[in-house]
User: What shape does this take?
Amino acid sequence: MSLEFSKGTDTEHEIKLDSTLISAVWRPGKAIGGQEMPFEVRTSFVGVGAKVNVKGKSENGKSLGKANGKMRNNVFVGALKIPEDIEPGDYVYFEVELPDNDLSGESDHIPAWPLVKVTNMKWSAKEARRGDCLKLT
Assistant: This one.
């Protein structure tokens, strides 16, 4: 789109503004299995209420589900649930499509890790007093 306008200012003129997809990003830098991870889609010159379709994926082929909604002030915020059985070192991303504006794109790829589960924790003593040092295994 040209930033130069050289027509007269004493009459009405009509110009066409091109819609663009500015960014599709995850808000956190790392995805954790079993958690809902928020994302954000930013555009310019997309009408309020324009349809947004988001589909989450992992590089290893897992589906993260879908999120659909409408643009508000050129921003769409949503979340996708990361599967609990995500493999360590897998990367997740999402594809975004705005069908009414013929726009589509892909988000950044962020690392995903399963949720850490701690089991069979034991203290070194059954009772303790203030100031005692205990060991947790």
Summary: Residues 123 and 136 are 5 Å apart (CA to CA). The chain has a mean pLDDT of 92. Strands lie at 20-26, 31-32, 36-44, 51-58, 63-70, 75-81, 90-98, 103-106, 110-113. The longest strand covers residues 36-44.
